[in-house]
Design goal:
The chain has 223 residues and is mainly alpha-helical. Helix content is 68%, strand content 0%. The radius of gyration is 18 Å and the shape is globular.
């Protein structure tokens, strides 16, 4: 039986959970049109659908939070266009949508490196966060990238450390920590960057530095 957007939406709506939605909002996930379905369940469901670029576009257009997450799980990175990335990133309305879509789809496209540098310059909170998160996911997923790639990220990480917006400072912190955990060379460079951030006259910067240094100076990363 052919699966369609309408059938998928009907299934998702049948899984509605007010209790789960309340739990999501306790974690700062305030995206509109939530149904309260976990990422784990959505990923399992996505595997039964398989890759389908056209269906992914239709699901995203529905505006339903879980349908958009599912879209990022089933879309084909090879068919994703730059215009699609620029359109979808402007629809981000929570850290959860931003981080999941960036890590499940965006960073697997041929435009990932370019978009990270473009988006991090944006004044829009979730677009800027997406740029930082793309840098973070590269540190996690790209096992072959040269250290130079990540060393080049440190100036922009430092430049955004004084942004007091909650979801920006947390993204800066996440990027700094993940890059610093790749290897000893990057750990040393990340610690240096964190110490420079600590000197900035900003509450956000001082929080970022303190939190990052706690993890980056742990023996398991420095030995």
């Amino acid at each position: 039986m052919t699966i369609t957007k309408d059938k998928i939406i009907k299934y998702l709506k049948s899984r509605y959970s007010a209790q789960n939605i309340a739990g999501m909002e306790r974690f700062g996930i305030f995206s509109k049109n939530k149904l309260g379905i976990s990422n784990t369940d959505l990923r399992k469901y996505g595997k039964t659908i398989g890759r389908d670029h056209k269906l992914a576009l239709e699901l995203w257009a529905s505006g339903i939070f879980e349908a958009r997450l599912l879209a990022s799980f089933i879309d084909d990175p090879k068919q994703v266009t730059e215009a699609q990335l620029d359109k979808w990133v402007k629809d981000f309305d929570s850290w959860a949508l931003c981080d999941t879509v960036c890590g499940s789809l965006f960073d697997r496209t041929s435009f990932a490196y370019k978009k990270a540098w473009e988006w991090v310059k944006s004044d829009l909170e979730y677009v800027k966060r997406a740029g930082l998160v793309m840098m973070t996911w590269r540190a996690v997923h790209d096992k072959t990238a040269n250290d130079r790639v990540f060393i080049d990220y440190f100036p922009v990480i430092k430049a955004n450390a004084t942004d007091e917006r909650n979801f920006i400072k947390k993204a800066v912190n996440w990027a700094l920590r993940q890059i610093g955990k790749r290897n000893k060379n990057l750990n040393t460079a990340a610690i240096k960057c964190a110490k420079e951030i600590a000197l900035l006259d900003s509450k956000a910067a001082k929080w970022i530095a303190k939190d990052a240094l706690t993890e980056l100076t742990a023996k398991k990363f420095t030995k």
